[in-house]
Amino acid sequence: MARRIIIAGNWKMHKTPAETLRLLNGLKVRAVNISNVEMVVCPTFVSLTIAAEALKDSRIVLGAQNMFWETEGAYTGEISAPMLKDAGCTYVILGHSERRQYFGETDETVNKRMHRALAEGLKPIMCIGETLQEREDNRMFEVLERQVTGGLAGISAGQMADVVLAYEPVWAIGTGKTATPEQADEAHAYIRGLIAKAYGDTVASAIRIQYGGSVKPGNAAELLSKDNIDGALVGGASLDAESFIAIIKAAE
Ligand code: PGA
Asked: CB within 10 Å: which end of the chain, N or C, has fewer?
């Protein structure tokens, strides 16, 4: 079954608001003729409102890189789902490995964020993936199962229509080492199997699973040609208009 490819740029802690506008202008002119790929950019929080304004007349949609699970309150430094909605976000990345690694995110806290995002009408891009050590210890499948079941605990089949998964092997992020298309497809097939077990075949065949980890213009087409790879979550190569659009064109 044909799933609409989704290419998302995770800008991480890059680009000031002024730089955001310059990059978006570069993307907009290059993206005018692209209609069959869903395009998402995820700038930092301080750039979201101006990015939403800049993207009004384009097909590129906006996402955030994280959010807290409470809607408001005394949580200094946090950002809520209603704030992201109001700022113009459609998507929110949750559980990125950098959040897990440096900021103490667990499957449980990712799950709380998932519930809040969906309740407030944001579409979560939930990231999962094993470390190099876990892969070498042959624990990849076990780790993926724990992350999928933990992160999606209590999410209904109906809600799954708004969920995107991103398989990002930690050893491939920002390292220039990409999973081979076969390695990625194997992990994606396993993840889709977990979704089938939990939600049935219809949900499993509809859910989009992005690959992330050193996706570049030169490897995107081969990765995206795999049956179970429905898009890409792009870090470094999304910071330049030419290379991000080249990845999107590879997806077309
Ligand atoms: P990368 O990052 O493309 O720079 O490897 C991907 C990600 O962390 O989402």
From this structure: N
Mutation pick for ligand 1 pocket among 40, 234, 238 (CB with most ligand atoms within 8 Å): 234
SS3 61: strand
SS3 (DSSP) at 49:
helix
The domain containing residue 216 runs over which residues? 5-251
pLDDT single digits (tens) 38-61:
999 999 999 999 999 999 999 999
Q: How many domains does the chain have?
A: 1
Residue closest to 109 by CA, chosen among 139, 78, 73: 78
Q: Is 214 in the pocket of ligand 1 (CB under 6 A)?
A: yes
| Cβ within 8 Å of residue 179, ≥6 positions away | 169, 172, 187, 211, 213
Whole-number Cα distances in Å, 92 to 38, 132, 164: 15, 26, 10
- Of all protein residues, whose CA lies closest to atom 1 belonging to ligand 1? 235
What are 18-43's pLDDT values in tens digits? 999 999 999 999 999 999 999 999 99
Q: What is the CATH number of the domain that holds 185?
A: 3.20.20.70
pLDDT, tens only, 154-202: 999 999 999 999 999 999 998 888 889 999 999 999 999 999 999 999 9
pLDDT of 1 reads: 55
Q: What is the DSSP letter of 202?
A: H
